[in-house]
Amino acid sequence: MTKILYVEDNPDNFRLVKTLLETSGYEVVGAADGIEAIVRAPQEMPDLVLMDINIPSLSGYEVTTKIKSMKGLEEVPVVALTAKTMKGDKDMALAAGCVGFIAKPIDPFTFVQDVESFLKGRQDKIPVVEEQSVLREYSRTLVTHLEEKVTQLQEYNRKLQESEERYRTLVENVNIGIWFLSPERNTLFMNQRMRDLLGVGQLDPASPDRFLEEEAAEAFRNHLQLCAEGRPQLWETKILTMRRVSREAVVSGVALGQHQGGTSGFLLSFLDVTEKKALERQLQQVHKLESLSTLTAGVAHDFNNILTIIQNNAKLLVTRSDLPEEDLRKLRNIEGASDRGSALTSQLLAFSREKPTNLQVLAPVEVLQRFCTFFANYKKPSVQLRYPTYATVPRIVADANQVEQVLLNLATNAQDAMPGGGVLEFDLRAESRTRETVMSGSVGGDYVCFIVRDTGNGIPAEIRHRIFEPFFTTKPPGKGTGLGLSAVFGIVKRHEGFIEVDSKVGAGTEFRVYFPVEGEKSEIPGEVDLRILSHGRYTVLVVEDEEMLGDLLCDMLMELGIKVHYAENLAKARQILDSKSAEINFILLDYQLPDMDVSGILKYLRTATPHIRIVFTSGYRLEEIRQKEGPVDIDGFLKKPFDLQSLTMMLKQML
């Protein structure tokens, strides 16, 4: 079937010609402008070209000349269709290589016959006498068109260069790694951020397989396959840099230039989220430790109530001189065991972040030197101790004993990590930290950093996140309680500080403990006079639902020479107050009595017995009670667990 290429930008004209020719048995293919005609002509290899002279992008003259120069199309007749009636226009068409022309608008009755005549070899001629003139005019027109096209091309190139510069500036300065890959996953381009992320040079022909472990590489290939199927991907992966350092990244991938049977490559963007993921894991760990802290505090409070009963009853019995020596020995054993249990519970409460009780303004270098002098007599001979004798750092407000407990726990662990000996080094420095650089959720500010560094075995990365958990230990059974670092964590947190750890297996560990520097509003409790109470002058009402603890309180108060009334619930307490309120000076009221309306009972006591001093007893801190209840109108507070000395101190403060 004879094929005709019709170059026409007017859809109505194209449909008319296509209908006329196809009705007569011809195959018609179209092109809407000059550039499309130049592309389609060698693809279709038509038997005839119908060329509208007035078409976009290139003139019909230029397109005709180009087509006639193509291999295999030199002899294909090109017929000009033009509405121009001037003889010069027709001559220009013939000079460009057209075999003839058909006037527009076309005549449907003669159009097909005209086309067939050109297919049979018809060729319009330019008179010889005019040929040179026409060629000169045609050359002039071509030169004019060429100059216009060169000017346009220069403008296009300028805009293209500006666009490329904008693109390159954007790509090279964006904080995201950009990586172009070929369909075979070879590197076509990567920006500077991507090269920095991988640690490769400008000319390194990096392939993704070099930077991915086996599992990540397989997932990478699967995602690229889905991209090639037209499904953009978003996934997380781990990258190994040239130095084999693991980095975490979020990858976005899309295929480029998709066409039937494949793609021309892949565009990948890499967002480095290593630090973000580390912060997330640390935040999760802090939340986990907070939950453990709450649980531990509850267990420790209940356990302390039991220990308080055992411990103080044993102490009261030991003071009796009429007991047989064997009974006294057993009581001292009970007392010693309960003391050890109390010490264990104190560590649990340290982890649960009870408030420091003996805040002082401390010079960190003095605290460190005092501790190191003590520890020098305690350490193994194979451990070399180093510490500064001078350091210019600000003062801190802290409990000195608890700071030394932190140093002792860290030093003991460091010594245990160096069974064959090594170096244990302490240091001090002042640092200003922003909230963003504080890894454990503390606020930013000025800190003094205590550094404890050893050359021991190091802590494996897979357990590093667990070292502050209570009861977690890597020591053999019987060699450790697993409470040392959890106590360190609790002490530091309740001083509003934080801890950082760096460790490498076989190369040692460094703990950095941060305490806030002294502030203007630091509150330091004063000393309490512990003079003996006068006997028989005061009466106390004890309200405690745990009978053994209530009996113990009564015994301890009577040991101090104080008259006591005891009530196991609020109803009994009201009965006693109704009949004996005039003689009562204090009421020791358990905060956790069942079904107690705190504000209601306080309002009742202030109204009915305004002369009686009210003291809360509780295993919770007073700050926690106020946080839950709001302001509480009480005169004193006795923290459980307590002993005879703390009870005496509280009463002396009340008096």
What assembly state would you assign to the polypeptide chains in this entry?
single chain
Determine the strand fraction and express it as a percent band. Answer: 15-25%
Total domain units: 5
Rg from C-alpha positions? 47 Å
Looking at CATH, which topology of the largest domain would you report? Heat Shock Protein 90
Could you give me the name of the CATH homologous superfamily of the largest domain? Histidine kinase-like ATPase, C-terminal domain
Shape: elongated
How many DSSP H or I helices?
19
Strand count, sense and barrel status of the largest sheet are: 5 strands, parallel
Number of strands: 22
The main sheet orders its strands as 2-1-3-4-5
Distance between the termini: 121 Å
Provide the helix percentage. 40-55%
Low-confidence stretches: 520-532
- What's the architecture of the largest domain, going by CATH? 2-Layer Sandwich
Mean pLDDT: 81
CATH class of the largest domain reads: Alpha Beta
The helix-and-strand class reads: alpha/beta
What do you see in this structure?
- With 655 residues, the protein is α/β, with parallel strands linked by helices.
- It has 5 domains: 3-146, Response regulator (Rossmann fold, 3-Layer(aba) Sandwich); 174-272, 2-Layer Sandwich (Beta-Lactamase), CATH 3.30.450.20; 278-347, no CATH class; 359-516, Heat Shock Protein 90 (2-Layer Sandwich), CATH 3.30.565.10; 539-654, Response regulator (Rossmann fold, 3-Layer(aba) Sandwich).
- The chain is 44% helix and 21% strand.
- It is built from 19 helices and 22 strands.
- A 5-stranded parallel sheet has the order 2-1-3-4-5, sandwiched between helices. Strands 7-6-10-9-8 form a 5-stranded antiparallel sheet, with helices on both faces.
- The longest helix has 46 residues, at 128-173.
- It starts with a strand and ends with a helix.
- Residues 520-532 have low confidence and may be disordered.
